[in-house]
Amino acid sequence: MILLDLMVPELDGYQVLQTLRARGVKTPVVILTAKSEEADKVRGFRLDADQYVTKPFGVLELLERVRALIRRSARDSAGSAPPPLRFGDVVVDTSSRMVTRAGVPCALTPKAYELLLALIRRAGAVATRNELLKEVWGYSAFVTTRTVDSHVAELRRKIEADPASPKYVKTVWKVGYRFEK
């Protein structure tokens, strides 16, 4: 995995990340930086960073984020490429991390992509917000945030024909979300 500081001498960390991804490097990247503005974080995720950690940070939290990324990376690289997942006109190719709808690529952020996979893996079972926060973001169960809800809304805008009446990512009121084929 790569730990990338955005403010390295003579280089722009965003450009480093963009160059890595353009060259096909799929190694997980954790951005470590003092830049804590939302726009900076969004830019990092749009360039396909896997994690964004602002300084000062807790060493134990950073180590757990690194461990989670390494576990996922090892799972993703083990064995041969699985067949693409298909539902309706949506295709999720987990080997290339590409999602298309009606043949058109859907530009999902890394977290929206991981959220989609977390819901699909449950095969119709309900995922609580806390479960998703822990699995996708690595947060503890004591964090209260609307992060899951905003990412679900983004995901629906990308993969649903009618995001206001979702067919695949269903809300289970007062509990969480469920994926339906």
The helix count comes to 6
Structural class by secondary-structure content: alpha+beta
In the CATH hierarchy, the architecture of the largest domain is Orthogonal Bundle
At the first level of CATH, what is the class of the largest domain? Answer: Mainly Alpha
Q: Strand sequence of the main sheet, in spatial order?
A: 4-5-6-7
Count of structural domains: 2
Mean pLDDT level: 87
Question: Can you tell me the overall shape?
Answer: globular
For CATH, the homologous superfamily of the largest domain is named as: Winged helix-like DNA-binding domain superfamily/Winged helix DNA-binding domain
Largest sheet: 4 strands, antiparallel
What is the end-to-end distance?
34 Å
**Cα-atom Rg, whole angstroms?**
17 Å
Spans where pLDDT lies below 50 across 5 or more residues = none
CATH fold description of the largest domain: Arc Repressor Mutant, subunit A
Give the strand content: 15-25%
**Percent helix range:** 25-40%
Compute the number of strand runs: 10
